[in-house]
């Protein structure tokens, strides 16, 4: 019996891909945890809060850096591998154009959103790193994801954290109390190195880019929908951190961001599964929403069950947080307890969202996520001034819960409508 299960596992591409992503993300989680502890301790809560506040603002613009063309690449190459060169070239070209425009926009908006105590040079360096170098690295990982070579995607997902762990360890050893600006310079250097590695591997193993404007115009609208989806996702995940810098204190940002980082780490197994099956979703989605929904339903019990158990473990482990990060992060334990339902809620809504995307309803998914992003920002304007990081935690729970309800309601409505249209009359 066990041998049969193992043989079936070995013969399953989805199982192998999930294993690669889980292995890569497992290493990434360990390295990221060490990196997180070092940077939180080195910069202290105020410095860490300033750094995270800027990163959170840039994260909203980040999905527009490639204008969603990385997802277009995955969808089209998963269905037709011979089109790789053109979509790889289109994605790089769009990154260059869109990244330049977004850099100017982020620098302009930052002065109104972030406090004046955060230096302009810090904002500039983080924006350049994210919008250009990190974007090239991410679309390189997506290129391998499109052809379901997840061992390469896993590798590319790991290397930024390894380089940044080495960088912060070196900086901490050389400088007693490094500033966020000093760290940002190393952040830029590691981002450049990772972008070069990603570009080299893709060009060597999958082929060089073909730069042409052919087909770009037709993909811009759908790519924009992908960008809106990811940006709105970043808004309800990260805008509270930027708003905390303005409406509360940098120390509160550091406390809340520390707890949220633990939530991100706990979601690693589900994130690995989602990455492994993303291209498969598009293949199932060719037959319509019911095809992709059947595929999602097979996976949801595992992801949702894990998310529920992970939430319980987070509550039980929360008191250990100040011992790991330092006494100044004592309130992060309470923040982690409040945020503990998020792994379950995220597991539930991500599968509904990818089902809609793969079946051609990216516009609907974007609309729902934009609504939730606006809802999140609106209640944060009320909750953060009154309750600081606790208000941000409450708004996160409310937003992810609302997103899960809305996405599944839309998905089931479309599925039922499609089924009624296919039923014979008379």
Structural features, described:
- It is a single chain.
- By secondary structure, this protein is mostly helical.
- It has one domain (14-418).
- 85% of the residues lie in helices and 0% in strands.
- It is globular.
Describe this protein with a few key phrases.
mainly alpha; globular
| Helix and strand element order | HHHHHHHHHHHHHHHH
Rg estimate, integer Å: 21 Å
Query: Count of DSSP E strands?
Result: 0
Going by helix content, strand content and strand pairing, the class is mainly alpha
Sequence stretches where pLDDT stays below 50 over 5 or more residues:
1-6
Mean pLDDT rating: 83
Percent in strands: under 5%
- What does the largest sheet look like? none
**Level of helix content?**
over 70%
Q: Whole-Å distance between the termini? A: 49 Å
Tally of contiguous helical segments: 16
Query: Looking at the structure, what is the overall shape?
Result: globular
Topology of this structure?
Elements: H1 2-11, H2 13-61, H3 69-79, H4 84-113, H5 120-146, H6 150-174, H7 180-205, H8 216-247, H9 250-266, H10 268-285, H11 289-317, H12 321-325, H13 332-339, H14 342-358, H15 362-387, H16 389-422
Helix pairs in contact: 2-4, 2-5, 2-6, 2-8, 2-9, 2-10, 3-4, 3-5, 3-8, 3-10, 4-5, 5-6, 5-7, 6-7, 8-9, 8-15, 8-16, 9-13, 9-16, 10-11, 10-14, 11-13, 11-14, 14-15, 14-16, 15-16
């Amino acid at each position: 019996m066990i041998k049969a299960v193992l043989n079936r596992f070995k013969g399953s591409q989805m199982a192998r891909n999930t294993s690669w992503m889980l292995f890569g993300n497992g290493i990434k989680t360990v390295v990221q945890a060490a990196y997180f502890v070092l940077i939180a301790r080195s910069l202290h809560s105020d410095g860490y809060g300033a750094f995270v506040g800027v990163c959170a603002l840039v994260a909203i613009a980040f999905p527009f850096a490639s204008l969603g063309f990385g997802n277009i690449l995955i969808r089209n190459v998963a269905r037709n591998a011979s089109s790789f060169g053109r979509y790889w070239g289109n994605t790089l070209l769009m990154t260059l154009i869109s990244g330049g425009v977004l850099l100017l926009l982020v620098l302009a908006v930052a002065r109104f959103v972030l406090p004046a105590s955060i230096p302009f040079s810090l904002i500039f360096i983080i924006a350049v790193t994210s919008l250009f170098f990190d974007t090239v690295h991410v679309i390189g990982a997506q290129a391998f994801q499109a052809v379901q070579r997840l061992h390469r995607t896993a590798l590319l997902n790991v290397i930024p954290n390894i380089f940044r762990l080495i960088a912060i360890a070196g900086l901490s050893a050389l400088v007693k109390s490094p500033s966020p600006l000093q760290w940002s310079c190393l952040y830029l250097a590691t981002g450049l190195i990772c972008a070069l590695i990603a570009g080299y591997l893709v060009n060597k193993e999958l082929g060089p880019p073909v730069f042409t404007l052919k087909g770009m115009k037709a993909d811009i609208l759908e790519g924009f929908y992908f960008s809106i989806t990811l940006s709105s996702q970043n808004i309800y995940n990260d805008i509270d951190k930027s708003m905390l810098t303005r409406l509360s204190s940098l120390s509160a940002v550091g406390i809340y961001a520390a707890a949220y980082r633990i939530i991100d780490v706990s979601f690693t197994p589900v994130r690995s599964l989602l990455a492994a099956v993303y291209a498969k979703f598009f293949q199932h989605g060719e037959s319509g929403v019911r095809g992709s929904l059947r595929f999602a339903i097979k996976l949801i019990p595992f992801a949702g069950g894990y998310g529920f158990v992970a939430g319980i473990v987070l509550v039980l482990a929360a008191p250990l947080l100040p011992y790991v990060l330092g006494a100044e992060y004592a309130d992060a334990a309470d923040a982690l307890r409040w945020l503990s339902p998020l792994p379950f809620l995220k597991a539930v809504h991500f599968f509904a969202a990818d089902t809609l995307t793969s079946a051609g309803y990216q516009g609907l998914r974007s609309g729902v996520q934009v609504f939730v992003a606006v809802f999140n920002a609106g209640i944060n304007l009320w909750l953060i001034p009154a309750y600081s990081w606790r208000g941000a935690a409450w708004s996160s729970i409310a937003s992810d819960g609302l997103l899960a309800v809305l996405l599944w309601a839309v998905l089931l409505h479309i599925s039922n409508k499609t089924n009624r249209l296919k039923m014979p009359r008379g």
